[in-house]
Amino acid sequence: MSDESGKNGKSHEGSGHDTTGILDEALERLHTTGPERNGRLTNHAPMAVEALVRNGQAQTVHRWLDHYAHKLEELPPANRPVTVDDWREALGDPARITDWTRFFARELDGPAARPWREVLAEWWPRLLPGIAAGSTHPAIRTGHAVRTLLATGETAPRRAELAHALGYWAARHQPLPPLVPLAVAPSAAAALDAVPPVPEQDGGMRARLAQLTAFPVWGTAPDPDTAKDRLTELVTAATHRYATHGHGEPIMLVHAATAPNAVLRALPALPRDLWVPSLGAAWAAAAAVTAAYTPRDPLPYKKIVLTSEEVFARAAAHGDDHTIKFTDTALDVGDPLALAAAVRSIELNPPVL
Known about the structure:
With about 350 residues, the chain is mostly helical. The protein contains 16 helices and 4 strands. A two-stranded antiparallel ribbon has the order 1-2. Helix 1 (about 20-30) packs antiparallel against helix 2 (about 45-55), helix 7 (about 135-150) runs antiparallel to helix 8 (about 155-170) and helix 14 runs antiparallel to helix 15 (about 320-335).
């Protein structure tokens, strides 16, 4: 299967080929802004505009950014440079976001720059244990950046976007607490159903993740190809589950699908020996979000008769950043239940356009 297709072989409209330069224009516009606002809220614009372009909505990007502009803040001030000798000291320090971004900018575009795949392969195993940090947004942003580099080739703004994504991930890096293994689950869907909810489903994601104690045993594989298959299964199961459980927290529960899909998008750029641990981390992220926000009871969903293009056009017109990104993942899955889940996200989340 080529990079231009969804996981079920269905090609996205637009296929990521932006011949207008709009994506690079948007990224350059966004790289003067920071990855967060109001202390911890994520800047979703780089991910949303990549999804819009990918799915044939490039003409809507600048209008969408104009509406989103009030949520953007300037880059935070630099502290002191991160170096190859002292990076461990800076890992997980949000005050060093700009230091980290500049470090990766040097790695990817400086005088001694290395190929982006080489940089990604070196840092992926270092960052992967902190996949849930920043409500999984740094890892998701990395997945969008990698997808663009794989699908449409390198430009300076696209390498810079990878630097911003990796820098955000490094600065927010925080592993999950130690977890007790529960019974082995036979499938990704069964594993998500068996995730115990955190006792106090209140407050932000960081407070909820601190309450995690145990997960069902799933997310292992004997070889890289099986790991990729199981990761695809996980993305599908989490996307499907949103159709019946998204009402528990319509915005946050999209990450149970979009975080593992970010990992899946990165696999083709990574050495195969990183695929099995990537599956384990993706499962941890999906399970953590599910535990933090899952509702007590499922609700029925509406069956739909719409094409993928029609569903994404609705998401683009709706305008909510999480809805756009989740619909992008649903199109990767591509089956009727995934499209119904995307429509459910459009219904549950308030429109912004």
